[in-house]
């Protein structure tokens, strides 16, 4: 039975017609914190904002913790 697991994600944002930051795609899950940081930073020059975060879960009991931001830059909107 698996115990506590940590997952890592990132997403980039662009501005919509109303000036709001909207995600350019669904959040992308990656294997490690380093990957999430690297990929978010790579998207930074072509986005109005980026965010990378982690989330802990305990699948055996169906619990998922809140997102923990590990990197953010620029203007970001809803990402979770």
Question: What does this protein look like?
Answer:
The protein is 14% helix and 45% strand. It has one helix at residues 33-43, and strands spanning 5-15, 21-23, 28-30, 49-58, 63-64, 68-74. Strands 1, 2, 3, 4, 5 and 6 form a six-stranded antiparallel β-sheet that branches. A hairpin with a 5-residue loop joins β1 (5-15) and β2 (21-23). The protein starts with a strand and ends in a 6-residue tail after the last strand. The relative contact order is 0.31. The model has no long low-confidence stretch (mean pLDDT 94).
List the helices and strands and how they pair.
Elements lengths: L4 E11 L5 E3 L4 E3 L2 H11 L5 E10 L4 E2 L3 E7 L6
Antiparallel strand pairs: 1-2, 1-3, 1-4, 4-5, 4-6
State the end-to-end distance: 27 Å
Which secondary-structure class do the elements indicate? mainly beta
Largest sheet data:
6 strands, antiparallel
The beta-strand count equals 6
Number of helices: 1
Order of helices and strands: EEEHEEE
Low-confidence stretches: none
Task: Give the rounded overall mean pLDDT.
Answer: 94
The gyration radius over C-alpha positions equals: 14 Å
Given the C-alpha coordinates, what overall shape results?
Answer: elongated
Share in β-strands:
over 45%
How much helix is in the residues? 10-25%
